[in-house]
Design goal:
Layout: E1 27-32, E2 37-42, E3 55-59, E4 61-63, E5 67-72, E6 77-87, E7 90-96, E8 106-109, E9 114-121, E10 127-133, H1 137-144, E11 170-173, H2 185-193, E12 197-203, E13 226-230, H3 232-243, E14 248-251, H4 253-262, E15 273-277, E16 292-296, H5 303-312, H6 314-326, E17 337-340
Parallel strand pairs: 1-17, 3-12, 3-14, 4-11, 14-16
Antiparallel strand pairs: 1-2, 5-6, 5-8, 6-7, 7-10, 8-9, 9-10, 12-13, 13-15, 16-17
Helix pairs in contact: 5-6
């Protein structure tokens, strides 16, 4: 398939720059794959589409203030975005300007609270860096780091918590699992009271989420890898749901990618595990575990648009996106939501 098949025209004013006041009052487009219908609802109406015995699987990763502004020893300004903790104080980071940060270069952040040394230039242009500091690394990040908002958001964020899900728990992401931003504690309580199970996975989202596909033939695109963990209690909930013939509904593409990475080819069952995934889902992929997906509206020609096209069918998705543009839905991270069932 060619990349241009996943292009759609998006007016810039539809890219949401700030979150709406109430998380669960964003709009919700509902796609029923059997009927190929398109419904327009409010996010809190999602409870009407969930049935007792279903299982919602959400990603409980927490975004770290991963954007750091510092200076080289020469005084030149530089920017780091932390992508992944490799081990101890060694991280993979995206750096700017890259041509000024060679192996051995040292950078000072927060008037000396944090120092970094470039250890290696990785094949994709990111850097392996080692930090030195006094105290606790995450506390220093909280003091001097900024939320790594996506490049299409130009407004500053007044409340950092709005770029976290209400159930965010384990620190390590460079981007939020944005489908989960629509949930409130009250809505989650109502969903559980209806008899819907809620299970967690943890996948630390990398900046590769925003990396554009450059290959003309989409099959030649190489995915970034991200680290995940799945606990036994959560795997058990998912498996109980599968064995009872009920639906597993992933909250977001990160939960979906985790489940599809770890699911058994034949049964779709999962087990407690930890690892890295670089799974690439595009049309033609056969889903093993998930039966539905809650997601936001994704960038033209992105791997995430390819993933939802694999689940619902490309023509159906492109028709839905055209309607979303016509009805002025809000797009991307702080935008509206879609439920595919």
């Amino acid at each position: 398939m060619e990349l241009k098949e996943f292009y759609y025209d998006l007016p810039e004013e539809l890219i949401a720059q700030v979150p709406i006041k109430n998380r669960d009052e964003s709009r919700l487009m509902v796609l029923d794959r059997k009927l190929e219908t398109i419904e327009h609802k409010i996010f809190k109406d999602i409870i009407d589409y969930l049935e007792p015995g279903d299982c919602l699987v959400r990603n409980n990763t927490k975004v770290i203030p991963a954007r750091l502004y510092g200076k080289k020893e020469t005084g030149a300004n530089v920017e780091f975005v932390l992508l992944k903790n490799i081990e101890g104080d060694i991280w993979e980071a995206m750096v700017r300007p890259g041509n000024k940060l060679h192996v051995g270069a040292k950078v000072i952040f927060g008037d000396g609270l944090l120092m970094a040394k470039i250890l290696e230039t990785l094949p994709d242009g990111t850097r392996k860096v080692k930090f030195t500091y006094k105290g606790i690394f995450n506390e220093i990040l909280d003091k001097i780091g900024l939320m790594p908002l996506p490049p299409y958001i130009h407004e500053s964020l007044k409340d950092n918590d709005r770029y976290q899900t209400v159930y965010a728990k384990y620190e390590g992401s460079a981007a939020a699992p944005t489908a989960g931003l629509h949930f409130t504690p009250e809505l989650l309580k109502k969903i559980e009271e209806k008899g819907v199970k809620i299970a967690n996975v943890t996948l630390h989202v990398g900046i590769g989420t925003f990396r554009p596909v450059k290959e003309k033939n989409i099959e030649n695109h190489h995915m970034h890898t991200e680290h995940y963990y799945v606990k036994k209690e959560d795997a058990d909930k998912i498996n109980e749901t599968k064995l009872a013939g009920k639906r597993v509904i992933a909250v977001g593409t990160t939960s979906c990618r985790t489940l599809e990475t770890i699911a058994d080819e034949k049964t779709g069952l999962v087990k407690a595990c930890e690892g890295d995934t670089g799974i690439y889902i595009y049309p033609g992929y056969k889903f093993k575990c998930i039966d539905g997906l809650i997601t936001n509206f994704h960038l033209p020609e992105s791997t995430l648009l390819m993933l939802v096209s694999a689940l619902a069918g490309k023509d159906y998705i492109m028709r839905a996106y055209k309607e979303a543009v016509e009805k002025k839905y809000r797009f991307f991270s702080f935008g509206d939501a879609m439920l595919i069932i």
